[in-house]
Write a structure and sequence with these properties.
- It comes from Verticillium nonalfalfae.
- Helices cover about 40% and strands about 10% of the residues.
- The protein is of the alpha/beta class and about 525 residues long.
- The protein folds into three domains: about 1-80, no CATH class; about 140-180 and about 470-525, no CATH class; about 180-380 and about 405-460, no CATH class.
- The strands form three sheets. Strands 2, 4, 5, 6, 9 and 10 form a six-stranded mixed sheet that branches. It has a two-stranded parallel ribbon with strand order 1-3.
- The chain is globular.
Length: about 525
């Protein structure tokens, strides 16, 4: 499976790891006098203009092509001679002290004692925990953090509220790039996921030049993942897209397999159909006499630092996550996903040719199908540059080049029919080919051994109810909520516990309730 420089899903803008490292240097070392040279692979810096003097010497520029960073150097004469940045070799106007010594004048210094004693350093505003002080921006989180030009929703965005909405709101508004602080446990979990993926795929690095290249690589990885699933019965890290309340959402499914997670459990659910007709919502309807069709089942992998099973509160985010994956994959399998709408959200041109280097790299991996002398035309997603155009006088002119073109899949539009065909071959019965039993694997973080496997059916009504509620706070129709009192143990692991308004209000409420009870007891004892 091909890969490109890793993009963190938790970042508002899709910075690569190298870019974030450089940006961190620029923020923390903005007073340094030494030039900073970015080191990153497959990055093509863009040519930028010299910044005006009013801007800081070290600034960053988010280049579209290649996800590169272009460093702005100091402006004016200082920029012409890099040696002068640290040595100060350029001629400068003499200082007052130098002029005084040169002219044999007596140097006198002003008395700054009174000025310094009267000077009071401005105090940093105290965090009262109220939203009006800590976060004066009144726009909705959807507009601020997940609307163009920032990246669209991820499945993680939508599931975060099932743990604690207020924690995620603080993450978006108070942490750099709106991303969670990477802990040792998170890094170990990422490492285990990578090890599981390497058991199925062989990663090959592919350099991309344009954003169309980058998304084309995602499509090729999806195609390769579907083929691996058909060939081996298992695939991992399969990316899917879907829409929630009109907003694009992307996610990556940990595992897909033809292996049924629990046939006995499904049989028990089916037997209960007679007494509970609503249970039919969990399973796809089958025509009488129709043989059981092969189905593909979704799995999510969670890691734990101790060998204990997850409680209901810990399981809930994983259930919502798998519900979303199942819905998105079912829509894709049914050929109902509007890919051109996805391109518009990402600001991609479906008819922009891939770079020559990208085509060469992908062709070397798929040479058996990348060149076709027949080059069949497709009825769907026809490239705008193909066929003929109607002129004003009624005549037609061909827009196809006279020279034969044996290379297929030059653009995203040309690549889409192949993706649709691969989905149809993998899911021949459309959405019915996606199994409605979902499973969460809990693995021990130290060695990857299986701790527990939780299995549950897909629940569309529960997902609809959850989405309706969580989108209310994303659209600022209500304030984000914290945890309930029975889940207050979550606060022990939260980095915002000391400034959390929800926790403070709950503490004040409990204190007020205790005082009221004491007051009632005093009154009763005095009677």
């Amino acid at each position: 499976m091909a890969s490109l420089p890793t993009l963190d899903d938790d970042s508002d803008y899709e910075f690569s790891l190298e870019e974030e490292t450089l940006l961190s240097q620029l923020v923390t070392d903005h007073t340094t006098t030494q030039p900073i040279v970015p080191i990153a692979s497959a990055i093509i810096p863009n040519q930028v203009e010299t910044p005006p003097r009013s801007q800081p010497d070290h600034a960053f520029h988010d280049a579209q092509a290649g996800h590169g960073l272009a460093l702005k150097r100091p402006s004016g004469a200082w920029a012409k001679d890099p040696k002068s940045w640290s040595t100060g070799s350029l001629a400068e106007p003499p200082s007052a002290l130098e002029r005084a010594l040169r002219d044999d004048q007596v140097v006198s210094y002003p008395d700054l004692g009174k000025a310094l004693s009267a000077f009071v350093a401005p105090q940093a505003p105290t965090q009262t925990g109220t939203r009006s002080v800590a976060d004066p921006d009144t726009r909705s989180p959807l507009v601020r953090f997940r609307s163009f030009p920032k990246k669209p929703f991820s499945v993680s965005d939508l599931t975060a509220g099932s743990w604690c909405e207020l924690q995620y709101f603080y993450t978006l508004t108070r942490l750099p790039f709106g991303r969670k602080t990477r802990t040792v446990a998170m890094k170990e979990g990422t490492k285990l996921h990578k090890e599981l993926e390497d058991e199925v795929h062989t990663t090959v690095r592919v350099e991309v030049v344009s954003k169309e290249d980058a998304f084309g690589l995602k499509v090729w990885n999806l195609i390769q993942g579907l083929r691996t699933l058909r060939d081996t019965g298992l695939t991992r890290e399969l990316e899917v897209w879907g829409f929630v309340d009109g907003n694009l959402v992307n996610g990556v499914i940990d595992g897909l397999s033809y292996d049924h997670p629990d046939p006995e459990f499904e049989a028990e659910l089916r037997k209960s159909q007679e007494s509970q007709p609503s249970i039919t919502d969990y399973f796809a309807s089958q025509k009488p006499g129709m043989q059981r069709i092969p189905q593909i089942y979704l799995t999510d992998v969670k890691t734990r630092g101790k060998r204990s099973t997850a409680n209901a509160a810990q399981l809930r985010p994983a259930k919502v996550q798998l519900f979303l994956y199942h819905r998105f994959l079912s829509v894709m399998a049914a050929e109902k996903l509007d890919y051109l709408r996805i391109f518009r959200r990402y600001n991609l041109d479906p008819d922009e040719p891939f770079s020559d280097s990208f085509i060469a790299q992908i062709a070397s991996l798929h040479d058996d199908e990348f060149f076709d002398i027949d080059h069949p035309s497709h009825d769907e997603y026809v490239p705008k540059a193909s066929g003929s155009q109607q002129l004003a006088d009624g005549s037609q002119t061909s827009t196809v080049s006279s020279a034969p073109d044996f290379i297929k899949y030059r653009t995203l539009r040309e690549l889409l029919p192949l993706l649709v065909a691969e989905l149809k071959q993998t899911f021949p019965h459309g959405a019915d080919s996606v199994g409605r039993l979902l499973s969460v694997e809990y693995r021990y973080r130290a060695d990857g051994s299986l701790i527990d496997n939780r299995i549950f059916p897909m629940d569309d009504s529960a997902l609809d109810s959850y989405i309706g509620g969580t989108m209310q706070w994303w659209k600022a129709e209500r304030e984000p909520k914290g945890v309930q009192i029975e889940d207050a143990w979550k606060c022990l692991y939260c980095e915002f516990a000391e400034v959390c308004t929800w926790r403070k209000s709950m503490d004040e409420g409990r204190l007020r309730s205790s005082r009221e009870r004491l007051e009632v007891r005093r009154k009763n004892s005095g009677q």
